[in-house]
């Protein structure tokens, strides 16, 4: 009978070898961070169809002495971030990105920079929407829902995780914006002839299709599946790897680790940093030339736009640097990963980086409104029209009342003066 059970476990594990990842210990149960249903302890218990048997060989990732962060703290932090912090930032970023797109569309997509900024807001908006669908369950069911609820299962098992590719599209567009602005400041005449709006739009559209499309290939790696822990007798859900992943493991690992993990964020960060430094130095020279009343080929409007975009790039650098640094660390610290010795630390760092990425996608509006005069004027024209008209009407009414009061006072004074003269 024992041999039959052992053979059954081997067959179940072979259905999803990616989940039973090496060196885990069989002496401890599945952690409480996944809400599970205790399976009957009866020998007649039938394993649910499609379930795999959990096995450990060496240590438990979420419960070992090497972990810098406890499983309890990671669970608490996960709930706070996904249930409260990200939704609050979403309430700021989602409407402001829509307003950004409306304003830049109104300003005209015939201008190259407007096309870039419109596309950046679109990519940020789609990325935030994807994350909110992924974490939406946490908002309404803080205390009861498992880490992998029905929504997460649906998104994961239908490869919709691929929409996370919009965050890398956003990084590429940020690099394009920084490069475009640097070229405009360094060589303003050539920038008008070399960089065409149509070419820029085609390149950005290609990035949307290719980057997000390949991200859907990476998304085929992950599956939420039923897992049975024979030690605790619990049945729960966990993330494993698909058969498609094992058939194309090298290619998918290359995309996930090299292309999306290091190449795109690293290249974007380096590009934005270098071009921003060059732009800032050149802009200072331009401002000095204008102060000396020397001949200057860059208008005051271009100077103002450049300052705004430099601030935009600084926000990008501050937010993307820790993300790129963390992904680079993973290459040198293999144990800092899911299912390894620093499992809890890895997951906690991911929640922190999710917040940082959300901030990068949400706060551009405040830079545009504060430093962009055309943006501010167009925004007020589009979204403050009724209020402005009401304030203008109130102002006109008050002005009319004041004029009438002054006129009445003057008339009264004249009448009083006339009466005094007549008496004398």
TrEMBL record:
<feature type="transmembrane region" description="Helical">
    <location>
        <begin position="346"/>
        <end position="369"/>
    </location>
</feature>
<dbReference type="InterPro" id="IPR019427">
    <property type="entry name" value="7TM_GPCR_serpentine_rcpt_Srw"/>
</dbReference>
<feature type="transmembrane region" description="Helical">
    <location>
        <begin position="258"/>
        <end position="283"/>
    </location>
</feature>
<dbReference type="Pfam" id="PF10324">
    <property type="entry name" value="7TM_GPCR_Srw"/>
</dbReference>
<feature type="transmembrane region" description="Helical">
    <location>
        <begin position="200"/>
        <end position="219"/>
    </location>
</feature>
<protein>
    <recommendedName>
        <fullName>G-protein coupled receptors family 1 profile domain-containing protein</fullName>
    </recommendedName>
</protein>
<keyword id="KW-0675">Receptor</keyword>
<keyword id="KW-0472">Membrane</keyword>
<dbReference type="GO" id="GO:0004930">
    <property type="term" value="F:G protein-coupled receptor activity"/>
</dbReference>
<dbReference type="InterPro" id="IPR017452">
    <property type="entry name" value="GPCR_Rhodpsn_7TM"/>
</dbReference>
<dbReference type="InterPro" id="IPR000276">
    <property type="entry name" value="GPCR_Rhodpsn"/>
</dbReference>
<dbReference type="GO" id="GO:0016020">
    <property type="term" value="C:membrane"/>
</dbReference>
<feature type="domain" description="G-protein coupled receptors family 1 profile">
    <location>
        <begin position="96"/>
        <end position="368"/>
    </location>
</feature>
<keyword id="KW-0812">Transmembrane</keyword>
<feature type="transmembrane region" description="Helical">
    <location>
        <begin position="160"/>
        <end position="179"/>
    </location>
</feature>
<keyword id="KW-0297">G-protein coupled receptor</keyword>
<keyword id="KW-0807">Transducer</keyword>
<feature type="transmembrane region" description="Helical">
    <location>
        <begin position="84"/>
        <end position="105"/>
    </location>
</feature>
<keyword id="KW-1133">Transmembrane helix</keyword>
<feature type="transmembrane region" description="Helical">
    <location>
        <begin position="304"/>
        <end position="326"/>
    </location>
</feature>
């Amino acid at each position: 009978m024992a041999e039959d059970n052992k053979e059954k476990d081997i067959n179940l594990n072979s259905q999803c070898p990616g989940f039973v990842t090496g060196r885990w210990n069989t002496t401890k149960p599945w952690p409480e961070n996944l809400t599970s249903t205790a399976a009957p302890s009866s020998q007649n218990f039938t394993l649910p169809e499609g379930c795999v048997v959990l096995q450990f060989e060496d240590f438990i990732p979420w419960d070992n002495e090497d972990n810098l962060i406890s499983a309890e703290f990671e669970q608490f932090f996960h709930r706070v971030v996904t249930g409260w912090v990200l939704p609050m930032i979403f309430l700021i970023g989602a409407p402001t990105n829509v307003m950004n797109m409306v304003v830049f569309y109104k300003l005209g997509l015939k201008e190259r920079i407007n096309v870039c900024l419109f596309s950046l807001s679109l990519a940020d908006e789609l990325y935030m929407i994807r994350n909110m669908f992924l974490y939406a369950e946490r908002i309404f069911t803080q205390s009861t829902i498992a880490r992998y609820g029905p929504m997460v299962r649906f998104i994961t098992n239908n490869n919709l995780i691929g929409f996370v590719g919009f965050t890398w599209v956003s990084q590429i567009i940020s690099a394009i914006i920084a490069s475009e602005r640097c070229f405009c400041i360094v060589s303003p005449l050539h920038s008008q002839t070399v960089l065409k709006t149509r070419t820029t739009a085609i390149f950005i559209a290609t990035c949307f299709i290719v980057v997000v499309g390949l991200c859907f290939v990476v998304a085929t790696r992950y599956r939420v599946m039923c897992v049975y822990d024979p030690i605790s007798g619990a049945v729960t859900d966990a993330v494993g790897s698909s058969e498609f992943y094992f058939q194309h493991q090298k290619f998918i690992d290359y995309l996930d680790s090299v292309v999306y993990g290091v190449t795109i964020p690293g290249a974007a960060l380096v590009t934005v940093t270098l071009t921003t430094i060059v732009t800032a130095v050149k802009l200072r020279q331009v401002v000095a030339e204008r102060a000396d009343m020397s001949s200057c080929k860059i208008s005051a409007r271009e100077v103002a736009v450049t300052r705004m975009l430099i601030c935009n790039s600084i926000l990008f650098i501050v937010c993307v640097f820790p993300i790129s640094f963390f992904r680079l660390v993973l290459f040198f610290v293999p144990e800092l990963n899911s299912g390894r010795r620093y499992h809890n630390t890895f997951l906690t760092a991911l929640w922190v980086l999710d917040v940082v990425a959300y901030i990068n996608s949400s706060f551009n509006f405040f830079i545009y409104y504060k430093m962009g005069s055309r943006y501010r004027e167009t925004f007020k024209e589009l979204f403050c029209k009724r209020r402005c008209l009401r304030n203008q009407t109130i102002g006109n009414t008050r002005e009319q009342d004041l004029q009438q009061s002054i006129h009445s006072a003057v008339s009264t004074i004249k009448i009083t003066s006339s009466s005094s003269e007549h008496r004398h």
